[in-house]
Amino acid sequence: MLAVSGADREAFLQGQLTQDTRGLNDGAARRMAGLTARGKLLYFGWLVGERDRALLLIPEPARETARAHLARFAAFQKVSVEDASDRYSVWALYGPAAPARTLPPGAVLLPAEGEMSGSVLAPASDEAHVTAALGKAGSQELPESEAEVLRIEAGRPRFGVDADSANLPDEVGLQDAISTEKGCYVGQEVVARLRTYGKVNRRLVGFRFAGDPLPAATVFPDPEKPGHELGRVTSSTASPRFGPIGLGFASRSVDDGAALIAPGGGSAVVTRLPFA
Fold first, then answer.
1. Which has fewest Cβ within 10 Å: 6, 147, 155, 181?
2. In this structure, are residues 260 and 219 in contact, taking their beta carbons and an 8 Å threshold?
3. What are φ and ψ of residue 149, in 5° steps?
4. Is 226 helix (H, G, I), strand (E, B) or coil?
């Protein structure tokens, strides 16, 4: 969690994030991403309004890079950027019975995302109250292994696993994090040019494996172009509903339904996300 404070915070973030930051009410949340000047991902997550500041909820692997990047641009503006991770707690929710009415006043219910029906964001000081409210609503803690299966089934990319600083936002399905109506921001020129004149060279897809799940980093080479990839696995699991599946990237030339062969054995069929 990064906290952005100061009189210029709205204008500052408007020039940094892919999402429109204007008129963000207390407790409101919007999907967003931060990019390099070349349009590559620095981070993605949620922009959350708070009374006197804006909060950026981002993946842990991007925390220090994002903080340093924002602090550098904030140096000559009435803005401060601080790491507030130890002051907040977050719970991912699954299933339709999100207990909004039973949460303490300081908690914020974030929108649905991927496999999650929502998330609860609250000050760390309210952690016991939120935990009690979730328990009263009948919730049970989900093991990490089961949460990972649900994530892959839904096709939600995880930063540092399925996406990183080598990716463009459109490659990993972050279209809803990008405003097409706002002014300039870092990386906008690249995003706009791609959407106007071309397409990304690869896209996030699902893989249905013929046998056991192929491990992350498995490459599907192009037999007609040595040194080129048709696809690459980034996450994999054995799903009780869909069998052996995974996430990864497929080249623009690879159609949905195409079968890809790994050099060491094993194959995968490319499928759209989420799995169905």
1. 181
2. no
3. -60, -45
4. coil
Q: Which residue type occupies 34?
A: G
Give residue for tokens 């903080």. 67
Q: Alpha-carbon dihedral of residues 199, 213, 165, 80, nearest 10 degrees? A: 120
Band of pLDDT at residue 195, cut at 50, 70 and 90: confident
136, 153, 170 - which closes a domain: 153
The label of the residue with tokens 């390099």 reads 36
Contacting residues for 225 by C-beta, under 8 A, at least 6 apart: none
Tokens coding 234: 């980034």
Q: What is the token pair recorded at 23? A: 């008129």
Question: 112 and 14, same structural domain?
Answer: yes
Amino acid (one-letter) located at 32: M
pLDDT tens figures, 30-87: 999 999 999 999 999 999 999 899 999 999 999 999 999 999 999 889 999 999 999 9
Please give the radius of gyration of the chain, using alpha carbons only, rounded to the nearest integer.
20
Average pLDDT over residues 166-195: 93
Give how many domains the chain has, as a whole number: 2
Strands (E), the chain: 2-5, 29-35, 41-50, 53-57, 80-83, 88-93, 108-110, 118-123, 202-209, 219-221, 229-239, 243-251, 259-261, 267-271
Q: Which helix (H) or strand (E) holds 73?
A: helix 63-73
Residue 76, domain extent:
2-153
Instruction: Determine the average pLDDT of the residues in 192-207.
Output: 90
Whole-structure pTM over 0.85, yes or no? yes
Q: What share of the chain is helix, strand, coil (3-state, %, to 5)?
A: 25, 30, 45
